[in-house]
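User: Design a sequence. Structure:
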């Protein structure tokens, strides 16, 4: 069996209605009892629902948040965060306000928004947080990531705009199907770079690691592991990067991936 399974959240662990199937949890917990390390590998931050998911997967382990900008051990509190380039932030904030778009600004443990409203409120609910919007100027701590939250029709315009020295990681969620989340990190930071660091921390060769995902922001991680798995609901970029294929998130595709990992 494999040594490490990395699990995306939206569209992989979490399905329609923000629901995680009981049989999926049972399969994951069974794999952990057999000695397989489990790591959340999410675009979400290390608080709210994602923190709870990580603690249930492995309460003493390393997990990837914010598309690799935060690599956090939820047991010890250790962090291997990648700081956001300070010179890039004012330009993005100015663009967000000029174009009347929602830009979220994140530290390891808190975030702020440029545009309170429907998307900001719904995203807070998805994250499992109270809706208490604060301005970026009031955010305390080191910024590690920003994120555009826009209508899907706006994705191409946002991605085409200049983001010099930065990497973009678009992703969707079945909980907010009308929106696209375009995470922005320092150039070179990705789920792939973070999964590599987690595997090294555990002493697991990358050819004995499985990554399960469904979105474009999972591609970097799918490309570095020996066993990349695409969900049945995966976007085309994730499918092209995969070696194995399982069912739709709502049909327990992640359970199938875990069962495969125990046979390899």
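Assistant: Done.
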């Amino acid at each position: 069996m494999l040594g490490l399974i990395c699990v995306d959240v939206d569209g992989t662990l979490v399905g329609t209605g923000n629901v995680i199937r009981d049989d999926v949890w049972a399969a994951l917990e069974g794999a952990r009892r057999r000695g397989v390390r489990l790591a959340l590998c999410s675009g979400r931050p290390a608080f709210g629902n994602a923190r709870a998911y990580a603690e249930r997967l492995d309460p003493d382990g390393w997990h990837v948040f914010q598309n690799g900008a935060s690599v956090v051990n939820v047991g010890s509190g250790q962090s291997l965060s990648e700081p956001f380039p300070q010179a890039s932030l004012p330009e993005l904030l100015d663009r967000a306000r000029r174009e009347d778009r929602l830009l979220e600004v994140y530290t390891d443990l808190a975030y702020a928004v440029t545009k309170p409203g429907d998307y900001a409120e719904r995203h807070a609910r998805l994250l499992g947080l109270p809706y208490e919007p604060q301005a970026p100027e009031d955010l305390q701590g080191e910024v590690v990531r920003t994120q555009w939250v826009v209508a899907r029709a706006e994705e191409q315009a946002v991605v085409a705009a200049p983001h010099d020295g930065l990497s973009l990681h678009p992703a969707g969620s079945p909980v907010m199907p009308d929106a696209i989340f375009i995470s922005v990190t320092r150039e070179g930071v990705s789920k792939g770079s973070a999964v590599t660091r987690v595997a090294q921390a555990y002493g697991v060769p990358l050819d004995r690691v499985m990554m399960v995902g469904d979105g474009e922001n999972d591609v970097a991680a799918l490309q570095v592991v020996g066993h990349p798995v695409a969900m049945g609901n995966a976007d085309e970029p994730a499918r092209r990067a995969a070696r194995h294929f399982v069912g739709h998130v709502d049909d327990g595709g992640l359970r199938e991936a875990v069962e495969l990992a125990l046979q390899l």
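The chain has nine helices and twelve strands. The CA atoms of residues 14 and 20 lie 5 Å apart.
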